[in-house]
């Protein structure tokens, strides 16, 4: 089950004064996320579209970025929150709060735009300093449908037919359409470039390559447009953050206050336990 929470960003305020209000349906107010995943990357790489594809099984050519959202995904018995930037990346308005405590970060670039990969290192990586110490990183090259014929056929997350027909299921798309649905663009970022960035991310975080998930597993090429690799991306991460949830729960249990014990203890005048 997926619950969408809308985040309202007031455009009349300056970037550093923006107030973010989270509204949630009354019936879901009790659902507390067990873990947080954030999606980061330059404007227009397709972050909102990836989330929309996964949660709504659809693709829209124009999608409102300002006033984004976070989603709550039930994964087994756990609630996973997935945070979108609400368009604040374009104003350099993503503070340290955005990644605070994140168990996984999705660093997203556009495969047709070299600069979008460079920006991940230059602008976005430092924002992850506040993420959990055992945070998992995925590097995601989106818009693969523009460069790779095999990404033009939907493999997961609904298909292009879904997008055009408002979610109505039609005949499955052929595995490899010929000729390609649209002329291919020059691929500016190869998977090897992304894997090299993954190595640098690990070094930046002071993580050992040997003990971290391998680059081949953590670098994805996706298409929010066709759904290519989208389910694979999110569900791989959901499985990988489960140990983090269990650890958090164990820590929570260990730090639980014994109410009976504290009731029994005497209080001093200053209100402290004696
Ligand atoms: N061809 C193609 N276009 C995409 C894809 N994902 C997003 N777009 C388009 O790229 C633009 C920016 O997408 P958006 O999700 O708003 O990017 P964001 O700023 O990173 O959230 C929109 O016009 C989308 O329709 C994709 O996988 N393939
Ligand atoms: Mg967006």
From TrEMBL:
The gene is rab20. GO terms for cellular component: Golgi apparatus; phagocytic vesicle membrane. It comes from the Eukaryota. The lineage of its organism: Eukaryota, Metazoa, Chordata, Craniata, Vertebrata. It is found in: Cytoplasmic vesicle membrane; Cytoplasmic vesicle, Phagosome membrane; Golgi apparatus. Pfam families: Ras. Keywords: Cytoplasmic vesicle, Golgi apparatus, GTP-binding, Hydrolase, Lipoprotein, Magnesium, Membrane, Metal-binding, Nucleotide-binding, Prenylation, Protein transport, Transport. It is an enzyme of class 3 (hydrolase). It catalyses: GTP + H2O = GDP + phosphate + H(+). Residues 250-274 are annotated as: Disordered. One of its GO terms (molecular function) is metal ion binding. The keyword Hydrolase applies. Its EC number is 3.6.5.2. This is Ras-related protein Rab-20. Belongs to the small GTPase superfamily. Rab family.
């Amino acid at each position: 089950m997926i619950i969408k929470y809308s985040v309202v960003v007031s455009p009349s305020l300056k970037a550093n004064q923006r107030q973010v209000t989270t509204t949630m349906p009354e019936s879901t107010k009790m659902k507390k996320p067990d873990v947080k995943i954030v999606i980061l990357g330059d404007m227009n790489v397709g972050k909102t579209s990836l989330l929309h594809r996964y949660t709504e099984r659809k693709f829209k050519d124009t999608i409102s970025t300002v006033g984004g959202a976070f989603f709550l995904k039930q994964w087994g018995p756990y609630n996973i929150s997935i945070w979108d930037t609400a368009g604040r990346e374009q104003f350099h308005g993503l503070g340290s709060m955005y990644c605070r405590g994140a168990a996984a970060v999705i660093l997203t670039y556009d495969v047709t735009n070299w600069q979008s990969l460079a920006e991940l290192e230059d602008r976005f990586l430092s924002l992850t300093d506040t993420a959990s110490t055992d945070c998992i990183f995925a590097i995601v090259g989106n818009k693969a449908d523009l460069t790779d014929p095999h990404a033009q056929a939907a493999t997961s997350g609904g298909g292009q037919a879904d997008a055009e027909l408002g979610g109505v299921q039609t005949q499955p798309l052929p595995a490899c359409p010929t000729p390609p649905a649209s002329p291919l663009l020059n691929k500016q970022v190869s998977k090897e470039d992304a894997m090299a960035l993954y190595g640098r991310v690990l070094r930046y975080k002071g993580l050992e390559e040997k003990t971290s998930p391998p680059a081949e597993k953590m670098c994805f090429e996706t298409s929010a447009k066709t759904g290519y690799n989208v389910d694979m991306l999110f569900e791989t991460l959901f499985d990988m953050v489960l140990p983090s949830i269990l650890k958090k729960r164990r820590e929570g249990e260990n730090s639980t206050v014994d109410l009976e014990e504290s009731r029994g203890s005497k209080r001093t005048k200053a209100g402290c336990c004696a």
